[in-house]
Amino acid sequence: MKLKHIKIAKLRRAFLLATLTTACHSWAAPVIELAIENNRFIPDLLLIPADTKIKLLIHNRDSAAEEFESFELNREKVILGNTKTVIFIGPLAPGDYGFFGEFNPTSAQGIVRAVATGEGSP
Questions:
Q1: Is residue 2 part of a domain?
Q2: What is the C-alpha separation between 111 and 40, in angstroms, rounded?
Q3: Of 63, 65, 100, 117, which one has the fewest beta carbons inside 10 Å?
C-alpha cells in the first residue's frame, strides 16, 4: 500500500513539473535583437508590441564597450566589446521611448516604439 502511495506522489510531482515547464515556456518574453556597430545601434528603431514584456538581446560587435542608456525605460547597462547581454523592458504603453549610448551619445541613438495591436507590425 505504501509503495502505491509513493508512485502516485511521484506521478503528481512529474505532472506538476511538466505543467510548470509548459507554462514557463508559454510565458516567455519575445526576443528583439539589437546590435552595436561602428558606435551606432542597428536598427535604430525597434518596433515592439505595446503592453508586452520584451527580452532585448544586445550584441556589441565593436571592440570597445558601450552603455545602453534610457531615461524613459529606466535602464542602463554597460556592454563590453564583442559580447552580448540581455535587458528586459516593458510592458510599455504605446509610444516612443528613446535610448542612447552613454559613451557615444551623438552617434549611438535609437527609439523603442511600442505599438498597440492593429496599429503596425512589431
A1: no
A2: 12
A3: 63
How many domains does one find in the chain? 1
Q: Over the range 63-96, which residues count as b (16 or more CB within 10 Å of their CB) and which as e?
A: eebbebbbeebebeeebeeeeeeebebbebeeee
CA angle, 114 as apex, 111 and 115 as ends, to 5°?
130
Q: Is residue 102 part of a domain?
A: yes
Q: Are 110 and 43 in contact (CB under 8 A)?
A: yes
Structure confidence by residue, pLDDT tens digits, 28-63: 889 999 999 999 999 999 999 999 999 999 999 999
Angstrom CA distances, 84 to 78, 92, 112, stand at 10, 23, 19
Residues found in the chain: 122
Distance CA 68, CA 89 (A): 12
Whether residue 107 is contained in a domain is answered as yes
Is the CB of residue 110 less than 8 Å from the CB of residue 46?
Answer: yes
CATH code at position 56 = 2.60.40.420
Q: Which domain holds residue 64?
A: 31-115
